[in-house]
Amino acid sequence: MKIFSWTLLPVLILAATAIAGCATSTPFAGAGQPHATVILNGSPRAQGLYPVRVRTINGHLTARQNQPLLQLKPGRYTLGLRPVNIRHMENLPGMVAGNSPARTRDTLTVTLQPGKSYYVAARIQQNGNWHPVVWKTTD
Asked: 64-67: long-range contacts (C-beta < 8 A, 24 or more apart)?
């Protein structure tokens, strides 16, 4: 029984190259590449906005979840976010200890344009729920 055929070798190499190309594709912009900046801190708390961190980008976990600023290639993204640095959350309206929105993840879908900055935050509502918002965009 013949297990391997040399005529299939070019097809296998092409498939492996395509898979490797997909695995190395990244949403992060390299030096000198066009990019949009996503700013995840600096939100005005007086407006009920709190800083967030990105957990996932387009459903894939990211190792950059502790960075307050991301430079991404232009395009459409779904960001999995979580609020951070919210002290004494049980004192916020509608919040109780142990029921922290910091343990909740939510998503934001945004289309990023090159050269723009997007300020993203968590908006905490009176009932304790939160949702991510782009609260400011600059050129």
From this structure: 64/28, 67/40
Q: Write the DSSP string, 60-124.
A: EE-TTTT-SEEEE-SEEEEEEEEE---TTGGGSTT--TT--GGG--EEEEEEE-TT-EEEEEEEE
Q: Which two tokens stand for residue 133?
A: 């918002």
- Report how many helices (DSSP H) and strands (DSSP E) the chain contains, helices first: 1, 9
Cα 86 to Cα 54: distance, rounded to the nearest angstrom = 16
Q: Is residue 28 scored above 90 in pLDDT?
A: yes
Side chain identity at residue 11, one-letter code: V
CB 55 within 8 A of CB 65: yes
- Cα–Cα distances (Å) from 112 to 64, 73, 75, in that order, read 18, 8, 5
Q: Are 64 and 54 in contact (CB under 8 A)?
A: yes
Q: Which residue's entry shows tokens 């916020």?
A: 92
Global pTM exceeds 0.85:
no
- At 126, which helix (H) or strand (E)? none
